[in-house]
């Protein structure tokens, strides 16, 4: 059955869930490029963006019978968002930091100590962010660990820049207070 241009996303979803290949093709044709553009905008790497979008469409087809969404656009772009974040986390500054030290391990005797200190800092930051909702924790990590600008975070999360600034301000203050308390406890334990 050929797809009509007036077919709604809801009708496409229903047809996809029942295994209609034409619906998958229509979704792919309509959403592939905007999804690719969103991934490429955040990553700046064509092949990674293409791979992410292809993986999402593969999962969409493989899991079509179990889809529990009513908003196709939201579902697909949320998938892009989470895949991009996952990729950044896996290959972010920590990976670059470790790659640098692995490349020059023979020149750096304190590699293990540096890695332990870095991991301890990340753990303390995570502890300081625990009281906050997942969205605020994500904003903080994108800003402070992944070096994203407020504008990039706002665009990526579909929020206003003021909202992002507010959440980052609260999270930064809490992390500073937590790290100060942790440092104070450490100093007290060392000198007591």
From TrEMBL:
One of its GO terms (molecular function) is sigma factor activity. Pfam families: Sigma70_r2 (PF04542), Sigma70_r4_2 (PF08281). Keywords: Sigma factor, Transcription, Transcription regulation. It comes from the Bacteria. GO terms for biological process: DNA-templated transcription initiation. The keyword Repeat does not apply. Residues 34-91 form the RNA polymerase sigma-70 region domain. Transmembrane segments: none annotated. PANTHER family: RNA POLYMERASE ECF-TYPE SIGMA FACTO, RNA POLYMERASE SIGMA-70 FACTOR ECF SUBFAMILY. Belongs to the sigma-70 factor family. ECF subfamily. This is RNA polymerase sigma-70 factor (ECF subfamily). It comes from Dyadobacter jiangsuensis. The lineage of its organism: Bacteria, Pseudomonadati, Bacteroidota, Cytophagia, Cytophagales.
């Amino acid at each position: 059955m050929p797809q009509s241009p007036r077919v709604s996303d809801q009708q496409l979803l229903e047809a996809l869930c029942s295994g209609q290949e034409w619906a998958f093709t229509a979704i792919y044709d309509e959403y592939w490029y905007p999804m690719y553009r969103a991934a490429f905008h955040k990553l700046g790497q064509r092949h990674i963006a293409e791979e992410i979008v292809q993986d999402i469409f593969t999962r969409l087809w493989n899991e079509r019978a179990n889809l529990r969404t009513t908003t196709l656009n939201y579902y697909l772009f949320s998938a892009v968002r989470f895949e991009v974040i996952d990729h950044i986390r896996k290959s972010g500054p920590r990976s670059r930091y470790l790659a640098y030290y692995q490349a020059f391990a023979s020149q750096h005797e304190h590699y293990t100590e540096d890695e332990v200190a870095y991991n301890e800092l990340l753990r303390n930051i995570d502890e300081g962010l625990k009281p906050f909702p997942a969205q605020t924790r994500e904003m903080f990590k994108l800003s402070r660990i992944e070096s994203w600008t407020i504008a990039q975070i706002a665009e990526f999360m579909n929020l206003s820049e003021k909202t992002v600034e507010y959440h980052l301000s609260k999270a930064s203050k809490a992390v500073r207070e937590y790290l100060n308390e942790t440092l104070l406890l450490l100093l007290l334990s060392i000198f007591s």
